[in-house]
Amino acid sequence: MSDEKPAASGAGSAEDLTHTDESGDVQMVDVGAKPDSSRRAVARGEIRLTPETIAAVEADAVEKGDVLATARIGAVQAVKHTWETIPMCHQIPITNVDTEFAVGDDRIELTVAVETTGKTGCEMEALEGVTTGLNTVWDMVKAAEKDADGNYPDTGITGVEVVEKRKERVEE
C-alpha cells in the first residue's frame, strides 16, 4: 500500500503553493499588483435542532433572547474580523453583508453573502459568517438542546459550503 495521498482537485505541485516560500515557510500572498475587482461570495450551512427548539425560536421564546437577531450580529461581526482569525488572510474592505435564515421543521439554514471591491476574494469571510452565525444559534439554544447527560444528540452543524463566487474587473 502506498502512503501517498491523492492530490486535491486542481492542486499542482509543491512549487505551485501560494502560501509557502521556497524554503517551505508559510507566507502571506502578495496581492499588491493585482487589479481591483468587484467580488461577491455566498456561503451556506445549517444547524439541526429538535422541533421543540425550532418552535421556541419561531415564537421568540428562547430564554437568552432573539436567536436569529443575535446570530445575524454574530455572522456580520465574524465577516468583519475574518482576517484576525484565519492565518494569512488579508484584511479586506467589506462593502456589504447579507444574511438570510430559512427555518424548517428541524433545522435552520443560514446563507451569508459578502461583497467587496479589492484585490482578493471574500469566500473566507462568507464561510466565517456562516459558521459563527450557526455557532451563535447553538449557543443561544444549547440549554433546550441538551439531553439528560448534557450532550447534544439531535444538534449538529452540517453542509457548510461556498455556493457562489463572482469576480468582475473594476473599470477605471
From TrEMBL:
Q: What is its EC number?
A: 4.6.1.17
Q: Where is the Molybdopterin cofactor biosynthesis C (MoaC) domain?
A: 28-167
Q: Which residues bind substrate?
A: M88, C89, H90, M124, E125
**A GO molecular function for this record?**
cyclic pyranopterin monophosphate synthase activity
Please state the pathway this protein functions in, per its UniProt record: Cofactor biosynthesis; molybdopterin biosynthesis
User: Which EC class is this protein assigned?
Assistant: lyase
Q: Where is this region: Disordered?
A: 1-37
What is the reaction catalyzed? (8S)-3',8-cyclo-7,8-dihydroguanosine 5'-triphosphate = cyclic pyranopterin phosphate + diphosphate
Please indicate if the UniProt record lists Electron transport as a keyword: no
Q: Which UniProt keywords apply?
A: Lyase, Molybdenum cofactor biosynthesis
Q: Which Pfam families match?
A: MoaC
Which BP terms in the Gene Ontology apply to this protein? Mo-molybdopterin cofactor biosynthetic process
Which InterPro entries does the entry mention? Mo_CF_biosynth-C_arc, MoaC, MoaC_sf, Mopterin_CF_biosynth-C_dom
The reply on keyword Oxidoreductase is no
Where are the active-site residues found?
D139
| Biological role | Catalyzes the conversion of (8S)-3',8-cyclo-7,8-dihydroguanosine 5'-triphosphate to cyclic pyranopterin monophosphate (cPMP).
What protein family does this chain belong to? Belongs to the MoaC family.
Q: How does it assemble?
A: Homohexamer; trimer of dimers.
**Protein name per UniProt:** Probable cyclic pyranopterin monophosphate synthase
Q: Name the lineage.
A: Archaea, Methanobacteriati, Methanobacteriota, Stenosarchaea group, Halobacteria
